[in-house]
Amino acid sequence: MSEPAEPITAALPPGELPVRRLYRSSDGRVLAGVAKGLADHLGVDVLWVRIAFVVLTAASGAGVVAYGLFWVFAPQSPYEPAGQPRERGRDLTMLLALGSLAVGLVLLLTALGIGLNPGLTVPLVTVCLGVAILWRQADDDARERWRQATATSQGPGMLRAGIGLALVLLGTAAILAGPANGGGATGGLVAAAVVAVGIALVSGPWWVRMARDLTAERSARIREQERAEVAAHVHDSVLHTLTLIQRHVEDPREVARLARSQERELRGWLYRPAGGPGGSAQLGATLEAAAAEVEDAHGVAIEVVVVGDCPLDDRLVAVRDAAREAMVNAAKYAKGAPVSMYAEVEPEQVTVFVRDRGPGFDPDTVPGDRLGLRQSVVGRMARHGGRAIVTSSPGEGTEVQLEMPRDRSPS
Amino acid sequence: MTDQTAVRVVLVDDHRMFRSGVRAELGDAVEVVGEAEDADQAITVIRATRPDVVLLDVHLPGGGGRAVLAALVAELPDVRFLALSVSDAPEDVISVIRGGARGYVTKSITGPELAGAVRRVADGDAVFSPRLAGFVLDAFAATTDVATVDEDLDRLSQREREVLRLIARGYTYKEVGKALFISVKTVETHVSAVLRKLQLSNRHELTRWATSRRLV
Fold first, then answer.
1. How far is it, in rounded angstroms, from Cα B11 to Cα B22?
2. Rounded to 5 degrees, what angle do the CA atoms A296, A297, A298 make?
3. Segment holding A67, helix H or strand E
4. Pairing between β-strand A398-405 and β-strand A387-392 as defined by DSSP bridges
5. Closest Cβ–Cβ partner in A301, A303, A347 for B143
6. Which of A267, A308, A357 sits opposite B141 (nearest CB)?
7. What pLDDT, on a 0 to 100 scale, did the predictor assign at position A254?
8. Which one in A139, A144, A228, B201 has a CA-CA gap of 20 to 30 Å to A258?
């Protein structure tokens, strides 16, 4: 058997547009556009390609196999002119082409040494015709989906499908009737094989195309959904905040607060690992949320670094509340200086540091208003079994260290 | 040492506004000898000017900061790279550090701090922002099974861990030295050692940590 792929590779000059794809043409086609597509691809006249197919068909039917393979594997050209109505007379030409294909197929079967009962040949050809028309029909369906066309050719399409189905049934019945008329067991086997092959031929290309279409459709849909999600998010958050900022141009504090909270929100949305820790039941997330609240309420930027994470329990809620209180104090007294919070989860304990670079104070002469810090931070930590250490000296800023042993029982 | 002469710097960022802002903030502290707005241009400019330090944006047209690092780190060992980005996503931070950058700072850094970081990188030291220190502590978590990693590269020493913790808490190198009763130079040595481990270690834990954060 001659190799159908051979002429293509030979005719393609090496290095010239290797990504150029072979398409079946719908413009100027007779059957499936294989010959025209090949001709376009190779840059030769379509007549030569058709002659080559006929010659190959005569040579043990290889042309039919080649045509079928191209039909299945070469996609329909996406550049086809839309809305070009097919002429009526085309169907007759197509039937002729199909007929010659069927004859070729029979030749091929004979050449392959499948002993054909002469009485079977006519029904076999009929089956092949039917299969070919159904095949053609499936192709058209796929094409309709591609073009999203209005149902222009539905009537003729249905008719062709009906004829194809009828031919298959007729041929099958004839073959099945054969053994009863004295065809023998071999004839029965051949008949079964023919029906199986027929079904496979009818449905095969259709499945291939459908799978291909589905993949393309699904990826397009996913892209569209993602785009819509991004657009919706940008609209709800960023555009909204920009509008608010324009309304508050005379209030720098409010502008800074809006910008900061939007930045935080956008960062969280962009960089938080999908499906990773982020639930409010984790210590890291709840500390970040507490820092965000303080940022919003006091208009300062708080840099948050969390190492490790663990689920929240009663004692860690106390740590969170103490840390928030410490951040509020830092925001109040640091007078705009940077505030940072560092939390580390270790197997034995959780440690949180809240640090500011504000003016600081002398711990020996604690001002009265700092008693709030003592009560709500130091006292709260002690009540839950942890401790808080406040370090500060004038000019050096203040650091609050919170330590809480972890609950070792499984929570 | 570069204490007397100004550090020669190339700015690589795809936003012109940002480049001019950095230029203004750095002022006389450094000499900006070139600017580039995408990876290819950056490679050309850096080859032509041979600066001391490249301030490199992580997200660039044409392959990002990683492409620049991949092209030049081996070729120009005297050029130091400091990554500068709005992103504080772990994958960005770790990928540029492992690509060969000597440090990572976010764009929210103040002008004097940035000038200090540039000078430090020019002197061959590493620059860790609090967030980067946090990432490293996270990646080299203490909960590692010691039996599986006994290589020097795969573990942080107790001292390195202490230094990183203080940096993560927002301490400057000077404050870290004061808190640990060591010199700033020793702090820098520790941080450089951590940077080396971060770049060279292929320990199991780091890989797993990276995977859990969608890194390559």
1. 8
2. 95
3. helix A62-73
4. antiparallel
5. A347
6. A308
7. 82
8. A228
> A271–B89: do the CB atoms touch at under 8 Å?
yes
Q: Which of B144, B169, B208, B213 to mutate to test the interface with A (most CBs of A within 10 A)?
A: B169
Place of tokens 């005297």: B78
Q: Between these two residues, B141 and A244, which has the higher pLDDT value?
A: A244
Is it the case that residue A276 has pLDDT exceeding 50? no
Distance of CA B102 to the CA centre of its chain: 4
Complex-level ipTM beyond the 0.90 threshold: no
Greatest C-alpha distance within chain A: 118
**Taking a C-beta distance cutoff of 8 angstroms, is the pair B137, B161 a contact?**
yes
Residue A294 per-residue DSSP state: H
A305 touches chain B (CB under 8 A): yes
Q: What is the pLDDT of residues A216-229, one digit of tens each?
A: 888 898 888 888 88
Which residue, among A112, A92, A106, A90, has the nearest Cα to A171 in the 3D structure? A106
Cα distance between the two ends of chain B: 36
Best mutation target among A270, A282, A303 (most B Cβ atoms within 10 Å) is A303
Q: Which helix (H) or strand (E) holds A231?
A: helix A185-233
Token pair belonging to B142:
């203490």
Backbone angles phi, psi at A55, to 5 degrees: -60, -45
pLDDT digits (tens, 9 = 90+) for B99-127: 888 888 887 787 888 888 898 888 888 88
Q: For residue B168, give how far its alpha carbon lies from the nearest alpha carbon of chain A (Å).
A: 6
Please report the beta strands in A347-408, taking only residues with DSSP state E, as ranges in sequence order: 349-356, 387-392, 398-405
What does the pLDDT average to over A281-303?
83
Q: Quick one: which of B175, B124, B196, B168 has its CA closest to A360? A: B175
Tell me phi and psi for residue B171, to 5 degrees: -75, 145
Per-residue tokens: B80: 């130091």
Please name the amino acid found at residue B135.
F
